[in-house]
Structures are given as C-alpha cells and as structure tokens.
Amino acid sequence: MKQNVIPGDSVTRGCNAKPDYNLAVCILASGSKGNTIFISDGCTSILVDAGLSGIEIERRLKSKGLCPENLDAILVSHEHTDHIQGVGVLSRRYNLPVYISHKTKKAGQAQLGNILDLITFECGATFMINTLTVHPFPISHDAKDPAGFTVKQNGSKIGIATDLGVATSVVKEHLKACDLLILEANHDVTMLMEGPYPWPLKQRIKSRTGHLSNEDSKNLLYELKHDRLLYVILAHLSETNNTPHKALNRVQEALAHYKTKINVATQDQCGEIFHLR
Description:
Metallo-beta-lactamase, Chain A, 26% helix
C-alpha cells in the first residue's frame, strides 16, 4: 500500500499508524465533460472514475497537494467517456489496478485499451481495495451495468450516486447512514424543458435511465436518515440546464432542520478536501 499524506492531515504516518481522520474526499471534476473523485484513508488512495485526460487528472491532483504516484487503484462506475477517458492511460502510467464490472469492461474496451491488472466486480458484492471496503450497487442509467458505490473505513461511510434517472429502493437503502454523500443534481426541470436541447435528448435526460433533477435529489434526501450526514456534495450539474444557485436552493430544503453542510461540485475546478473524523 502506498502512503498519501493528505493536506489537512496533521501527521505524516505509515500505514500502521492511527490516522487523525477516517476518510478524505475530493471531487476533482464533475459534469458532462468529465468526472473524477479522489478518496483516501491515508494508506489507500483511489480514484472513482477517471473521466478527464490523464494529464489533466495529474494536474488537478497536484493542485491539491496530492501525488498521482501514490494512487492505489481506479474504481469505474460505467463506460461513458466522461467517466473512463483517463482510466487506461493512468493505469498504464502508474501500474494501477482497475476495478470494473465485466459488462462495463466489455462496453468500454475500445477506450480503456490494454490494462494489465483488471479486477472485475459484481453489483451487490462487497470487496476490499486494500484498507477500503467498497460496495457497488445497481443504478438506473443508460449504460450496460452502471454502479453506485459506498466506501467505508473505520466506521465512516461515503455514498456515491451520480448518473441515475431514478432513486430506486436499492439506491435509497445503500445511501442510508452515510457521513458524506455525493449526489447527482443534474438539472432544473424548467430550464431543461425551456432550453436549447432537442426533444429526444430532453426525454432521455428526464427518463428513468437519465439523470436526477434538483427536485429528485431533494426528495431522495427527504427519505434518508440524516443522523450521521455531515456533508452533501451535489454533482454532475448540467452547465446548460442548471446553476449551482438553483441546485443549492432546491436541494437544501430537505436539510433545513439538520446541521448537514451542502456543497456543489463543478466541472472546471477541484472541490475542497473533506475530512471525516
């Protein structure tokens, strides 16, 4: 296992030392042009998706004081270009194993290229990436085998649910009791319907295999228990059919009586590093 000293971590440590946080999370990019999430417990560091070029992901990691050489693996949610563009090149450059479902691997093979260390998973089956416990669960999206994830370490739980057209009962069950939740808030329905997209694309986005609206995300949060939820990061916002202001105003209605902090991930710059302690 490689060590990655995360900015904000007050101790430079080995993997056997007790960290002063359980998990660190940073969204490097989120949107239709590319999606990448960095997660680390200080001993194991992974990317969830790598939807930018390899060079751009390296640049964004370094801008947050993170070393791409210290990554341990890449975890892939589905085969769309904005999630796998940089997977192959980073895997080959840094000798990183890629965790991916068999159907997603088959669908994305042309973009992935030759990957020496490829490990397949099945949605519903928990597995370990070194010290991190990962549980993939099925989501509703127009890809071959799309997955959401929970990542756990030392009692902390992260939920990741982007690129889904509907929050099914399975999604709701797995997103319960998270400390940090990365949740899609793709579009404002009025902006989408009155906007420039052609009708078939509007229908695809609104469908059960498309993307969650701000209202959908708000309704999902209403149904989840918030006892442990410290942070919500709204992700995959459309640059054409949404604004951070609209997403925040709508979704935070579900968190009005809680101390949960809400944030918006953007396409063009890294977010802050969140520490779960």
